[in-house]
Amino acid sequence: MSTPDTRTTTAESEPRLAHAPTTSAAVADMLSQAARVGTSSIIAADDLRHRVARAVQAASASLIRKQRTMPFAGRGAPGAHWCAELEGDSILSSEYFLMKCILGQQNEPGEKKRLARIVNQLRLSQRADGSWGQYPGAPIDVSASVKAYLTLKIVGDDTDAPHMARAREAIIRAGGAEKCNTFSTFYLACLGIVSWEACPAIPPQIVLLPKWFPFHMDKVAAWTRTMILPLALCSALQPVRTLSVNIDELFIDKRFKRRLSKRINPKKPISWHNFFLLVDKGLKLARRVGFTPLRQRSIRLAESWITQRMDPETTEGLGAIFPPMVYVQIAFQKLGYTRSHPLIRQAEADLDAFMIDEPNADPRLDHIRLQPCFSPVWDTAIALDALIEAGHRAHNNDAVAKACDWLRQREVTRPGDWMNNLRPHDRTLKPGVDMACWAFEYRNDWYPDVDDTAMVAKALHKAGDRPGEHVNRDAAARAVRFVFAMQNDDGGWAAFDRTKDRRWMEAIPFADHNAMQDPSCSDITGRVLESLATCGVDMRDARVGHAMEYLLRTQQPEGCWWGRWGCNYIYGTWQAINGLIAGRPSLNERQRARADAAMDRARAWLLACQNPDGGFGESANSYLDRSLMGKGPSTASQTAWGLITLMHLLPIDHPSIERAAAYLVGNQLTAPKRPFASAQRRGDNGAPGDNAPAEIVGSDALADDEGSWAEHWFTGTGFPKVFYLRYHYYRHSFPLKALARFAERRWGTMPSH
Predict the structure, then answer these.
(1) Which of 193, 465, 547, 687 is 20 to 30 A away from residue 450, measured at CA?
(2) How far apart are CA 179 and CA 70, in angstroms?
């Protein structure tokens, strides 16, 4: 292993830089010993060394068994890789159903049965108070609840039924349907539930704006680019398919059915919020009087922009994510595209591939759920990273070698929108030649991202090559060039683009999805620094020092770091500390003192977060309430993040480290468990109950076998405060990585202190 590490002689002393061994021979030896001892003896002896060795052995074997040879749902190219379900919330089910209603397809014989099973997932995911939420333990999500209620009403659920009454009461308590976000309001407008005046105006003319204009397509986040033009077409064309159903009972103030719910703030008369609301009023007035210059030209250009990015040779659906795949079908139907058109057939197939079929003899449990996208590149990279920590390399493990081959084949070799924001000298670099980058999904050539590229580069470099080859490390070296090209001016790294930190855009009425921009974040910056160090970059590079300053600047007063892509402060702190350790050689004496002080504060904060059971956990509620940072039931993945972080900050034999390792060992599955999914507790009458993971519904056989860990909580983040994710491999890959590293450093051949 080449990842930098720190060790201290006491918990109170300042960390100093050291380096871990370059091999995992000690781990391999331990595993061999553990295999000879036998499981029953290990458990009976309660010997931590053997228990950890056995856990690493079982987790490695389980993860290798899960390796796929064929892509999920037939999408993408075959080859050895990992891809598990990427679990979202109920909005995916309700939005799919409502899309079919908008398209007029809900009663087609081929759709009706399938839609009924999708709707059944909504019934399964309703909570005891009648609401729907974004994740287990979340407060009510009004938008999700309104769309679910509307869906159930359309299919004929009696509004006086207990589950509908509870839903209605919960929505009213939360402020009524007028509290729905922009995306939900668009669905309601397409169904004639509200007027198009209640939706923010998104003129398609934005596609004509020059690059120097404050608002431009290149100046918004990648995920917004894929959503905004289909929605702009909907906004301009205003499709309406009125049903014989309304939800007037969900509105407290029915005036908001006819006008935007966002209001002018008189307390801040001069503000971006008020400015954009006035712009919205002006755009709608212009439309009413017929002043829509360049409308047809902008519609044609928007259509061309979208179709170019739907090319099946470059992507599996627009943006390769759920929302734009929905919006484009609605917009293109209004443009006159028939269902038989190749683009529409492809759009349908790409979206339907997200379905996960869960048949059940009990009609209440028979359902289909949807995921927001596929995560094969990310899943494969983190699985490889874990297996490599356990001693598996390309030269000694065929599963590792073949997964590396698959990743290299997924390398993006075409230029995309992201190149428009590079510095002039970096725009001369050619993807696939001068630099290497990867997307999250099976195929999404338009939008590779920094996070996946950094993780893939680290995995390929650490995996090494088969004898006589150097392809993996060559690819990792080219990935370093991409990563440096994507560094932001503030020193940090974002996900998909450079220079996406125009916070004033968050005041645009459309921007309530909390993803208009893509600013630098501490977690990706830390991961990038760790990857650079692993790939052999000279960490005295000035660009590394710039990134280190960013990390030191963004530490929270409590000592932790905010996590953009995982829940939350535990995730952010884990990644930031990895980065600070890796980038330490770039610091001068004064900066090292600041870094040491920062790590002291992080150590104190993390130790205070450790649960009595030795584990770590944090609910996504910490994005809403800072008092909840680092607090929550212990989970396998978050305990792994905490354990890895503590190993940087404490002596390896520190009790807190051993307690975290013991938690993981003690909670590892030792026999196959009954299948489960994103189930909710069910009451005696068969109605869904509260949102705490409890009774089991559905299946997740890929994750819950011997050697894995059970984890029902959502620990991943899509859009903070808006959309959250449950990565089914987090609870497997990260605990394996943490335990393997702990074993090597606790009992392996370590550098002298």
Answers:
(1) 465
(2) 43
Q: What is the mean pLDDT of residues 177-187?
A: 93
- In terms of Cα–Cα distance, which of 288, 201, 277, 261 is closest to 236? 201
Distance CA 693, CA 639 (A): 18
Cβ atoms of residues 330 and 232 within 8 Å? no
Residues 228, 182: Cα–Cα separation, whole Å:
12
Q: Which of 383, 384, 381, 393 is nearest to 22 (CA)?
A: 393
Whether 8 has a pLDDT exceeding 80, the answer reads no
For residue range 191-212, list pLDDT tens digits in order.
999 999 999 999 999 999 999 9
Lowest mean pLDDT among 16-30, 624-638, 737-751: 16-30
Query: Pseudo-torsion of CA 610, 614, 619, 621, nearest 10°?
Result: -30
Q: At what angle do helices 398-409 and 471-485 cross, to 10 degrees?
A: 40
* Local structure of 370: helix, strand or coil: strand
pLDDT value at 703 more than 90: no
- pLDDT of 753 higher than 80: no
Query: Which pLDDT score, from 0 to 100, does residue 74 have?
Result: 75
The residue among 383, 415, 411, 428 whose CA lies nearest residue 472 is: 411
pLDDT value of residue 73: 75
- The answer to whether 387 and 397 are in contact (CB under 8 A) is yes
3-state secondary structure of 566: strand
Alpha-carbon distances of 541 from 293, 412, 476, 497, rounded to whole Å: 51, 27, 18, 22
**Is 451 an annotated catalytic residue?**
yes
Rounded Cα–Cα distance for residues 150 and 525 (Å): 42
Q: Average pLDDT for residues 484-489, to the nearest whole number? A: 96
SS3 236: helix
Q: Angle at which helices 222-237 and 182-190 pack, to 10 degrees?
A: 30
* pLDDT one-digit tens code per residue, 625-657: 999 999 999 999 999 999 999 999 999 999 999
**Residue 470 is which amino acid?**
H
Nearest to 375 by CA among 704, 698, 72, 93: 72
Long-range Cβ contacts of 52-57 (<8 Å, 24+ apart) = 52/661, 52/665, 52/739, 52/742, 52/743, 52/746, 53/27, 53/743, 55/664, 55/665, 55/668, 55/707, 55/739, 56/27, 56/30, 56/31, 56/390, 56/736, 56/739, 56/740, 56/743, 57/31
